[in-house]
Design goal:
The chain has 2 domains: 240 residues, Rossmann fold (3-Layer(aba) Sandwich), CATH 3.40.50.300; 107 residues, 3-Layer(aba) Sandwich (Rossmann fold), CATH 3.40.50. Helix content is 34%, strand content 21%. The chain contains 10 helices and 12 strands. Helix 4 crosses helix 9. The longest helix has 27 residues. The protein is globular, with a radius of gyration of 21 Å.
Amino acid sequence: MQVLRKILLFPFALLYGALMRLRRVLYQQGVFTRTKSAVCTVVVGNLRVGGTGKTPHVEYIIQKLRNHYEVAVLSRGYGRKTKGFRWVQATDNALQVGDEPLQYKNKFIDVPVAVDEQRVRGVAQIAQQNPKTDVIVLDDAYQHLALQADLYLLLTEYHRPFYNDLPLPAGNLREFAAEKSRADAIIVTKCPQNLTKKDKQNIIQKINPQKDQVVFFSVFRYGNLIPLNNLPVLGFKDLKNYEQILLITGIENPEPLLLELSKSNAHITHLNFADHHNFSTTELDTIAHTFQSLSGKKIAITTEKDAMRLRDFAAQKDLPLYYQSLHVDFLEPIAVGFDAWFLQKLEKISPLRNV
């Protein structure tokens, strides 16, 4: 059935991909205006619709940059009900600024975070209002061609690489896979820890990078369980004390987290919602009722991104809700390591202010 669906939708995928290609050509030919900022801009994006791990990779980059540069973050603020440029405050809610920008601000309280659906305007506003800014990291702006960024990092998931996919609607790509050519680096995310050098070389061969492109491989590392209310931080080993886990997710691909939590041997009840889902009052009541109906010692767990939309609810219902912290590590490189390559590239664009 899936194969038949792809065959039937393939002509529409070709048309969609061709329109996206034409759009890029029109930008390249100057028919549409591209703007380059005086402030160094770094884009973290993908070709696939969601699920490649942009948020933890943006956090990794913020962590690396903040020791060397005055860094700011710009996001569209997907799912917010507001419009235009807006600085993100830690006290905002996801409906005001979006869940991912709110997550960045809560994790890096000293880093300016802003949202704007028009990235050119957003970059200009950050530069004008915060003139000390050296580098602006743009979350999910690979297709935002009106801005000509200085550095493009393209993410693709190990289990769902762009080279095995098709454009919408037959597949999940926003553009033809060949649009990888705009990237300075391609990062294969969510790799297994035991990925061998031969495995990496096989993937690089399928990606077929250009001479000036580099390929890196990253893995997810799950950390502590962080409470949304006044409860102690838990380690994964502490889950052995629980009989029941209520897992609440509103992300594109919850399977890796579900697999990780299954190692605890607790019974998992999974309430799965759409990516960036804004929970209704009825759905929040269902979550609370489902948790109350579980027998034995129990715990509620969500993702950090979902926690931005559930933290008020957890406080109101006195629900013992935790989010599973997530970190990015880069695997041993084929050639140069990501950190060295990244900082060296930026040094050529914007000299280090602090070492």
